[in-house]
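Justification of resources, computational component.

The compute hours requested in this renewal are based largely on the per-chain cost of generating structure records like the one below. Each record pairs the submitted sequence with a full structure-token output. That output is archived, and it is also reused by downstream analysis tasks.
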Amino acid sequence: MAAEHTARQPEPPAQKHPTDKRGAGSSIARGVFWPAAIVIAAFVLYATVFREHAAKVISQANESIVGGLGWYYMAIVSLFVIFALWVGIGRYGDIRLGKENEKPEFGMRSWLAMLFAAGMGIGLVFWGVAEPTNFFAQPRPGTGEGQADKAEAAMVQTFLHWGIHPWAIYAVVGLAVAYAVHRKGRPVSIRWALEPLLGDRIKGRWGDAIDAIAVIGTLFGVATSLGLGVMQIAAGLDFQGWVDDGGSKTLLVVLIAGITLVATLSVVSGIGKGIKWLSNANMGVAAILLLFVLITGPTLYIFNTFVQDTGGYLQNILALSFDTGASQGDAGTDWVKGWTVFYWGWWISWAPFVGIFIARISRGRTVREFVCGVLLVPTLLTFFWFSVFGGAAIYQETVGDGGIVGAGDTVNNDYALFQLLDTLPGGAFFAGLTVLLIVMFFVTSSDSGSYVVDMLASGGDPNPPVWSRVFWACAEGAVAIALLVASGTGTEALTTLQTAAIIIALPFSVVMLGMCAATLKSFHRERQAHLEAKRRRDEARLIDEAVAAFEEGMENGSLSDGGQGQRPGEQDQRPAGKR
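The structure output for this chain reads:
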């Protein structure tokens, strides 16, 4: 399908709703903007000035949440999967996220590229090699001892973390917001997705608090990824010998500043230009890198492992979705908390950002198209990506000369991808291409994150003003730089921010449960209205048919003789043309 933006009239400014507390000449929602900005500034100050104390307090809070509520995260994320599949496959699938017969705003290719790049594009590049090899080197308790068992279990577990579950989390938020925005004409914000449950209460402090939490969580998540992610870029430059010290704070700050600058230019240009173009370019470069590893790596092994491990995932998805590790004792629960529960919290913390963004770009799609596009297509692409990179890495460890898994069965996550590329012909060139891809993915995540934050802080305006786009894009970079510099020789302050983002996921998970209920309530009302309208149309049709039959009978005279027909011996006096 054509990737070009479908010709549309420019969107009118967002309708002013009772939640819009902007004064004359202002472009911000004061009840969202200022609380969020104050909390972000206060936390950054706390995490930089009192670095060790902040790390300890936040870590203890996270341990209490993850340790005590791991079962809760496992249960609700599985519920989100069931919910998304049910509304997409069931009777609500034909509901359009827009006006009746409205065409999609973006072509299918651009739409998939943007939601994929914003959702987890950079994560795939970072973890494509690192995660499967981590699980192979230090398998989940209860995994068989043989290399074949460990290899398959590593890939299946990776598929679980990056497959349908995280995309279902995004779909819950995206679908609720898209329905409220495109079908009901509400501003682009989280609060309006809960209108069927909270009613007019969303127009006050409850609504402000929900949107402020979304702003804080989004900025924390993007800033953390920006700060930690530039380390992989620096690692690639260092691995190729292009810089003297990949761990230099100066280099990392320069990288963050450069990415922030490009992201700012992109977000200023809007979704239809910079963000769309960069997303399409990302997919193109990623495809080139994927084909390179597929062709120069163990091609047959990759295809075999893709089919086999997809089958293993489908066979075990139900058990893995609810497996808290309890049957393996403390070792099992600790492993699940350290990986799976961490991932579920991290995906939920990103849900406001990714959900709102994919809602914003999904105008004109049906619920079925939305669910299939958000859940199934990215999941299959993700599985193939991990099969190529993770499969090639595990093949290198089991059949080749190794070199990715180090002493003590450890994996250097920053270097793992470049270590794999180094074993392939022409790897040096493609290592440089990989660095470019990582930068592009970070730019896409940063500019789309800034766009979402700006819409929320501007009262749900789908086309927020340029100055505030620049403000939030720069704020993300500034937060990342401040925490990175404050971390000394490590990343303690950035890790504290990441942990705080996951803690924010707990209250937001409750909001997501409310979104599920609100979406079902809205869809049920619309379904009932549709059925009522259909009943009235059917009644009108039956009445029209009865009237037409009556008129025809009157015209033919069949009613005047009581339906008895012509009496015996009676001549029909009507003209021949009327008989």
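The two ends are 59 Å apart (CA to CA). Residues 130 and 416 are 6 Å apart (CA to CA).
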